[in-house]
Amino acid sequence: NVPLMLSMVGLLDKYKAFPNELSGGEQQRVAIARALITHPSVIFADEPTGNLDGVRSKQLMQYLEKVNQEDKITVIMVTHDPLDAAYSSQMYYIEDGKIKDHLMKNDDSFDTYFSKIVKISMEL
Fold first, then answer.
1. Average pLDDT score over the chain
2. What would the pLDDT profile of 93-113 be if each residue is shown by its tens digit?
3. In sequence order, what are the residues at sequence separation of 6 or more whose Cβ sits closer than 8 angstroms to the Cβ of residue 94?
4. pLDDT at 36
5. Tens digit of pLDDT for each residue in 61-88?
6. How far is CA 3 from the centre of its chain?
7. Three-class SS string for the chain?
């Protein structure tokens, strides 16, 4: 359902718009909606919040976390942003094609997990 997906990413009002009429962030959100409409079992996301402002970034990350937990969609994401990474259930630090560290959220709160991510980021 296209209107539902556009609504979920906050773009229902752009239903009839052409790509050149959308900002970079809006195009990014349309790409997310387009990926989710097929109900995939896996989503690959490369810097999914790269063109988004802080509010939209948080909304998108919360939505990806929700589809992961509720719809059991695996989300594999590449990011350099520790805040985005904190929405994951686990993460791998990769440097020069090698896994340098691995971190699991387990029962940590968002803030605790985020702090661990930042700490490891600063050590590498």
1. 89
2. 998 999 999 999 999 999 999
3. 100
4. 82
5. 988 898 899 889 999 999 999 999 999 9
6. 21
7. CHHHHHHHCCCHHHCCCCHHHCCHHHHHHHHHHHHHCCCCCEEEEECCCCCCCHHHHHHHHHHHHHHHHHCCCEEEEECCCHHHHCCCCEEEEEECCEEEEEEECCCCCHHHHHHHHHHHHHHC
Which residues are CB-neighbours of 29 under 8 A, at least 6 positions away?
9, 10, 11, 52, 56, 60
- Paired residues of 104 in beta bridges: 90
**Cα–Cα distance between 66 and 89 in angstroms, integer?**
12
Q: Which of 67, 59, 56 is nearest to 89 (CA)?
A: 67
